Amino acid sequence: MTEDNKNDFRDDCCKNLVYVSEDIVNTGIGVVIDVQNVYKYFGQLKVLNGISCAIKKGEKVAVIGPSGSGKSTLLRCMNLLEEPTYGEVWLDASIMTPVDPYLHKSILVKSNTYKRLMIEEIKSMLGKGEKDKLKYDDAIRLVDGDTLENLSDKVLKQIKAGDRLKKREGIEFVKAVKAYKDRYGVNINKARQRVGMVFQHFNLFNNLTILQNMILSPVQLKLKSKEDATDKALKLLERIGLLDKKDEYPSKLSGGQKQRVAIARALVMDPEVMLFDEPTSALDPEMVGEVLSLIKDLADEGMTMVIVTHEMGFAKEVANRVLFLDGGNIVEENTPEELFNSPKNERLKDFLSKVL
Ligand code: ADP
Ligand code: MG
Questions:
Q1: Pairing of strands 45-56, 31-42
Q2: pLDDT for residue 6 is more than 50
Q3: Ligand 1, closest atom to CA 325?
Q4: Eight-class DSSP state of 230
Q5: Distance between Cα 84 and ligand 2 center (Å)
Q6: How many CA atoms lie within 13 A of 18 on its CB side?
Q7: Residues with beta carbon < 5 A to ion ligand 2?
Q8: What would the pLDDT profile of 181-229 be if each residue is shown by its tens digit?
Q9: Which regions of the chain does DSSP assign to beta strands (E)?
Q10: Angle made by CA atoms 172, 160, 9, in degrees to the nearest 5
């Protein structure tokens, strides 16, 4: 990453002055996936630019936006197929990403950079010279509480705005990060299993039968016994009316059938939330209906879901909330009625005029 875009980022971050609330973890308020100030850069390309959104239990969130706006990347960050460059993604009360120290005041204040800058501030306030040696613990005793708080805010802003943290920030900092991770961290494979994902191009293994495709992950990851996985897979195949295809290979299925299998495959894992990335955009028009109707059934049963879609009618019908992404930001979000009928943002108006 170049210095330039680092600075852009921190300016932006500083404007929001975002912190994750320290002890209010999301259990109890019903948030399943919490995306906190996520940035994703691919080299020079800034694909996500500080996205925050919380997906509540039972919510159906549609994500719309022009091609290249970062929709797939956002979804991939939600189940850690991509690791954000900055920011955090939480699943219930667990942090799935590495800890982003910039989001935690309690961690930032343990850094050597913070302590060094605080000492400088205090020294200059007290008119002490460069040469006056002062330890952090002694320095902060020389000023009163309010002053200390003001200086601290100033220094924290500087650190965030300038992306000032270094590789080595001292043992206390390392310990604080580790304590956070120990408290809220989670086995990533276990976490990922709770987030089902369905792709545009099905991603079935062509050399495996339908049934083998469905039980592969849960059995390989030792999340389910082969018997349990098979049992569940057969029930799901029956539900989607494809039980008779269990021993066929994907090439024998139509696109619509493949996508229904891909959805069922994700459901074998008993996910808490389902992410759909344009699940119908690779399908022939006559097959779109069967896939949307399966997704709608899941929605009606209370499944929490995030759907990237170009099917605006479907988004209107199924979603409780629609996010409009442009240039890696959530530019507008609202209920489908409001967002589609009275869009506020010019880019959204323009987008809707092309797709509706
Ligand atoms: P959308 O789904 O809204 O069309 P994407 O999230 O797929 O947008 O992509 C946003 C931008 O990020 C695009 O310019 C795309 O080329 C780029 N991009 C996505 N994934 C990668 C990657 N792994 N490496 C480099 N660039 C990527
Ligand atoms: Mg995409």
A1: antiparallel
A2: no
A3: 3
A4: H
A5: 17
A6: 23
A7: 71-72
A8: 999 998 888 888 899 999 999 999 999 999 999 999 999 988 899 999 9
A9: 31-42, 45-56, 60-64, 86-91, 94-95, 195-198, 273-277, 304-308, 321-326, 329-334
A10: 135
